Amino acid sequence: KEVKLWGGRFEESVTDAVEKFTESISFDKALYKQDIMGSKAHASMLAKQGLMSDSDRDTILKGLEEIEGQIEAGQFVWRTDREDVHMNIEAALTDLVGEPAKKLHTARSRNDQVATDFRLWCRDAIDGIISRIKNLQIALVELALHNEGLIVPGYTHLQRAQPVLLQHLLLAYVEQLERDAGRLLDCRARLNFCPLGACALAGTGLPIDRFITSDALGFTGPMRNSIDAVSDRDFVLELLSANSITAVHLSRLGEEWVLWASEEFGFLTPSDKVSTGSSIMPQKKNPDPMELVRGKSARVIGDLVSLLVLCKGLPHAYNRDLQEDKEPVFDSVKAIVGMLEVSAEFAQNVSFNRERIQKALPAGHLDATTLADYLVKKGIPFRTSHDIVGRSVALCVSRNCELQDLSLDELNSLNPVFDKDVYEYLGVENSIKKFKSYGSTGSECVAGQLDYWIDKLSIS
Ligand code: ARG
């Protein structure tokens, strides 16, 4: 058995069970790029500070590049007995270049090393998620552009509420996604500080320069407090929180579209490209991708909860428990990326059924609130208007008709203020024309929202 890098004080080697239980190489090899980047920056800094010769530095840089090449070519052998990505690469470098490699870990611990690698990884992950959020936003705006003027029932409590433009609803998702991206950017700005040089927890007496490594790795600056630098994973909690909120948004979109694709709603038809069938029922065409978007939100939320529970009982500074921070993050990022990509594809492959929607529109008294506003314009206090329209609706329910089917005499029997012009307010087409307030579903307002997003997302 190879002697461990930390083996000096040990007389016996660890049992196979412990070795298997404590390894992280099976998953943290995903950090190899960041680990090599960090080691290169560290070696360069050590040479600048006179802690390593320039020739040792060059040997190390060349060796690390060769190892990176081997990893990318699938030729590198990851060894469980070398525990994690950091020791695998350092030991392989020693195998490759000999003595100079033994200087690389000067003024460095795996504790600051892993914190640095992981921040770099999360930073890249954030950039990747944000670009996918933008793609989904573009797909939704384009879907809106293809469905100009289409009015759909708006719901509250999943009961018919007021008419809205489909474009307005689609742009609501776009707004939510914009805040999701904003949360990730906030998280990115806060995580972009460098732990490297914090060493195990206390820093070092050696003359390192943490500003050099921080700059080389694109961080805003070195973290101020070495104990904090190796201890906290709040950047991960923020990333997973942001992902969870995005996941909840996507899950609601999934739920809505699955519902709308049902025979009962029939508002939306996904193309074959984004549907799947049943192994027993030959007629089936299911919106599985959006069901799985809804389903995968569960694991994204679960990953956040795992991390919160992982961190809550840890005394300062580093604890090995923190090795458990990787898998939930990898899982969450993979899931959210897939959810965003598939949602965009679904949006590109879905059509809204104008006829079916138009047939559904007259039912449910969607124009009742517009009618109450009509009475307000005639000088009636809103609470009284509400009551008058409520009694009008009750009359409709007893007659099995809509508000626009009531005659002026019938309306006047409820209140004499109704005039012929009331019919300009009734029916969804008329009703929707009355919306004027900022942010409302009125066509001018929605057109303004669309222009905003076309410009912001550079849609041509
Ligand atoms: N594999 C460890 C992790 O992921 C690296 C740090 C280990 N440090 C230590 N002192 N055992 O957290």
TrEMBL record:
UniProt domain Argininosuccinate lyase C-terminal: residue ranges: 366-433
Protein family membership: Belongs to the lyase 1 family. Argininosuccinate lyase subfamily.
Protein name: Argininosuccinate lyase
Domain Fumarate lyase N-terminal: residue ranges: 8-302
Organism expressing this protein natively: Datura stramonium
Cited Pfam families: ASL_C2 (PF14698), Lyase_1 (PF00206)
Superkingdom, taxonomy of origin: Eukaryota
InterPro entries: Arg_succ_lyase_C (IPR029419), Argininosuccinate_lyase (IPR009049), Fumarase/histidase_N (IPR024083), Fumarate_lyase_CS (IPR020557), Fumarate_lyase_fam (IPR000362), Fumarate_lyase_N (IPR022761), L-Aspartase-like (IPR008948)
Record-linked NCBIfam families: argH
